[in-house]
Amino acid sequence: MFDAFYFLTGGTSGIGAETARVLAKRGVRVVMAVRDMKKAEMVKERIIRENPEADIMLFEIDLSSLSSVARFCSQFLSQDLPLNILINNAGVFSPNLEFSEEKIELTFATNFLGHYLLTEMLIEKMIDTAEKSGIEGRIINLSSVIHSWVKPDCFSFPKLLHPIRYNGTRAYAQSKLATILHAKALSKQLKDRNANVTINAVHPGIVKTGIIRAHKGLFTDSLFLIASKLLKSISQGAATTCYVALSNETKGLSGKYFADCNETNCSDLANDESMALKLCTQSRALIHGYLDESQKHYLPNVCLM
């Protein structure tokens, strides 16, 4: 079954590492795109100890850097490998205002823009793979229920890139709203093309992963103390991602939002088609400025927005 390629970002810990383990156990080739290759090698070794037949490929990528994402995609696509599933899992939570290499707010750059560019550059390969194999391609965006905290007047593209008054929790919520809007917009365009590729967003649940552990403090400690009875294990947190990626029950479903392995409702703002179109139009215009002509060659034949 190794002719099936499942691509995952951020698989070095937490939900991502568990997702990689489950996928490898299913007998597919797992491609992990990670920032920390040393940690990735350790995850790979653990998976192979459990499952000696596992086939895992590692690539280095910094999702906060648009130039890094573009270089990676060019490298990956030059190998002419198939691509069946793309899981946009990697994420950061930055309590303090930080900026990416391109001077974009770090949380938004990593959680949304990097994955947006990654998806744009890989989508034609996914469409081609699905057409040749007859197997539905699937894209899964990791989101969060916290997306519902965002108010319309707080979701302005210029302010997402360069916030004036920064709040880490708000920035994280905004980035997770953006991942749902991306799924909604891209789903519509894929349907218009009759492409055999779906895209959905998932909420993994409240899981105390490395994103939170790296930022100890009174607020996060108190939040998890209050929510302790609702906390999921790492394996439970990865369950919805794996369900949407692997289950026959999700075949043909696109532009949806899942939690606890069930389709559920997202916020009204996340369902705003005009907001989704505007976000993707602005994002595409932005990323074009960071690509050379050879990299633009990999972008969709039509504007996926």
From TrEMBL:
Pfam name, any one: adh_short
Oxidoreductase found in the keyword field: yes
Keyword entries, A-Z: Oxidoreductase
InterPro entries, sorted: NAD(P)-bd_dom_sf, SDR_fam
CDD domains for this protein: retinol-DH_like_SDR_c_like
GO molecular function (one): oxidoreductase activity
Record-linked PANTHER family: NAD(P)-BINDING ROSSMANN-FOLD SUPERFAMILY PROTEIN (PTHR24320:SF198), RETINOL DEHYDROGENASE (PTHR24320)
Family: Belongs to the short-chain dehydrogenases/reductases (SDR) family.
Protein name, per record: NAD(P)-binding Rossmann-fold superfamily protein
Species of provenance: Arabidopsis thaliana
Organism placement in taxonomy: Eukaryota, Viridiplantae, Streptophyta, Embryophyta, Tracheophyta
